């Protein structure tokens, strides 16, 4: 009896024709195996990163990747994903799939869901696509190269990026974003902790005895630190009255792209800042 075997099998892939025995691909030939019907244990020896403007899936602690019931080998040089066709400033999920017996990558805005066995995440509606990461584009046709603008789903590591420093002035008596140019973007998968930090060196205040506040805004004007806000009260005016302030927040965020930004206000007068900096740390 002739069987219609898959044309591009992966090592360990099982084929069970209707009414026939099970066969398993060993990398060279299909072999009959009474035990072939036993499910292959999922393995994810992978890490997604960026190099030279391309996203890459690299081997990590091994070189096997489980895709749709079979194991495939990640080459030592990794598998690349060209940014051609990505829209500007868009968050994409990166999926791995099998093509002619090898691993390939694709980007998509389609969100992932858990696989049937719960061992990994797949593209919604397509179990042949395995989630390996998330990445943000910069301009059209270009991935962002900032370390926190992409994250690996498998084997994540801590990554920190600082935003551009600035010296915005404070004159508003209600909370406002101090400088949109100081925003620091990042991506994160749901359930992972994100550390947000704002550092500031205050210089002086135009009015003695008045208060200046600043804090971390997440995706807009709000306060993320606990307790909210770092306050400095000037006893007198003058550039010599310089103080360093540090605000930190740790929390999980919704899955996708975000940014932090400095926010603040004064009780009266004008607060002057020598330097302010934002930085974020993610698991990715």
Low-confidence stretches: none
- Helix proportion: under 10%
Question: What's the total number of strands?
Answer: 23
For the record, the count of structural domains works out to 3
**What is the beta-strand fraction?**
over 45%
Main sheet properties: 6 strands, antiparallel
* Overall spatial form: elongated
* Top CATH class of the largest domain: Mainly Beta
The rounded distance between the terminal residues' Cα atoms is 50 Å
| Helix/sheet category | mainly beta
In the CATH classification, which architecture of the largest domain applies?
Answer: Sandwich
- SS field, number of helical segments: 0
CATH topology category name of the largest domain: Jelly Rolls
What is the mean pLDDT? Answer: 87
Q: Measured on Cα atoms, how large is the radius of gyration?
A: 25 Å
Element pattern in H and E: EEEEEEEEEEEEEEEEEEEEEEE
Brief summary of the model shown:
This protein has no helices and 23 strands.
Fold and architecture overview:
This protein has 284 residues and is mainly beta. It folds into 3 domains: 1-38, no CATH class; 46-155, no CATH class; 160-283, Sandwich (Jelly Rolls), CATH 2.60.120. It has no helices and 23 strands. The strands form 6 sheets. Strands 9, 10, 11, 12, 13 and 14 form a 6-stranded antiparallel beta sheet that branches. It is elongated and about 90 Å long. It starts with 13 loop residues before the first strand and ends with a strand. The model has no long low-confidence stretch (mean pLDDT 87).
């Amino acid at each position: 009896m002739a069987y219609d075997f898959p044309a591009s099998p992966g090592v360990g892939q099982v084929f069970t024709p209707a009414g026939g025995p099970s066969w398993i691909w060993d990398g060279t030939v299909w072999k009959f195996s009474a035990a072939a019907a036993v499910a292959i244990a999922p393995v994810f020896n992978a890490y997604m990163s960026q190099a030279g403007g391309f996203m890459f899936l690299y081997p990590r602690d091994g070189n096997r990747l489980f895709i749709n019931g079979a194991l495939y080998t990640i080459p030592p040089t990794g598998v690349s994903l060209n940014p051609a066709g990505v829209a500007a400033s868009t968050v994409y999920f990166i999926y791995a799939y099998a093509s002619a017996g090898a691993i390939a990558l694709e980007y998509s805005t389609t969100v992932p869901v858990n696989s049937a066995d719960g061992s990994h995440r797949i593209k919604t509606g397509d179990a042949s696509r395995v989630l390996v990461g998330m990445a943000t584009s910069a301009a059209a046709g270009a991935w962002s190269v900032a370390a926190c603008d992409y994250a690996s789903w498998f084997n994540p590591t801590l990554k920190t990026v600082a935003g551009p420093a600035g010296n915005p002035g404070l004159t508003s008596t209600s909370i406002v974003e101090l400088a949109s140019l100081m925003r620091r973007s990042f991506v994160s998968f749901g359930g992972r902790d994100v550390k947000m930090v704002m550092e500031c060196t205050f210089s002086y205040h135009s009015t003695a005895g008045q208060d200046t506040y600043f804090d971390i805004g997440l995706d807009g004007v709000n306060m993320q630190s606990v307790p909210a806000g770092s306050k400095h009260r000037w006893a007198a005016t003058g550039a010599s009255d310089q103080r360093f302030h540090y605000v930190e927040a740790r929390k999980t965020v919704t899955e996708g792209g975000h940014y932090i930004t400095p926010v603040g206000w004064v009780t009266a007068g004008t607060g002057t800042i020598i330097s302010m900096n934002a930085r974020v740390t993610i698991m990715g």
